[in-house]
Amino acid sequence: QVQLVESGGGVVQPGRSLRLSCAASGFTFSGYAMYWVRQAPGKGLEWVSVIWYDGGNKYYADSVKGRFTISRDNSKNTLYLQMNSLRAEDTAVYYCARDLQLWQTLGYMDVWGRGTTVTVSS
Amino acid sequence: EIVMTQSPATLSVSPGERATLSCRASQSVSSSLAWYQQKPGQAPRLLIYGASTRATGIPARFSGSGSGTDFTLTISSLQSEDFAVYSCQQYNNWPLTFGGGTKVEIK
Question: Are the Cβ atoms of A45 and B98 closer than 8 angstroms?
Fold first, then answer.
């Protein structure tokens, strides 16, 4: 079945780095734009980044621009988020999600992983 | 950045009653509006896109309406499984932005 499984979260000190992964299965990963969305404790959802199905375009929220890098390996059906210079305000559950439409970037997500928790604390 | 504002923050409703949730955009997003449902400890679930199109498998008791800056999600007769947090999201412009959510709780 269609599935996204995030990994790589944990507790990290401010200023350090972490790389999240999202393993996709059950669908043609290489045909879909993919997203990272996060949710701080007790807060609403916040879009973090998007990557086009072919990796040709990438956008970031201003809050992470210059610190986070999204990438994908279509041969491994895996999405990544490299997070550098982490701050306390980056503490959140990070979800990866799939765009609804094959070969397009519509901007909304119909398949979500269960999330991985990142805690930035000294 | 387009700011999405949802109201009310919490809605207390009895099972079987109708729930009406509002979402307002700080500028027009046309019909590029999605609604998600999220239960505690779970990932969001897409309910509505294009302001009024139900996603696959979403029951007919969920309906969306609106365009421009004002949108509504209506749950016609609340079932026990519908008590959750509902968030709207605009995708008319980058960055994508979400509302703060409306919690629908049992009255």
Answer: yes
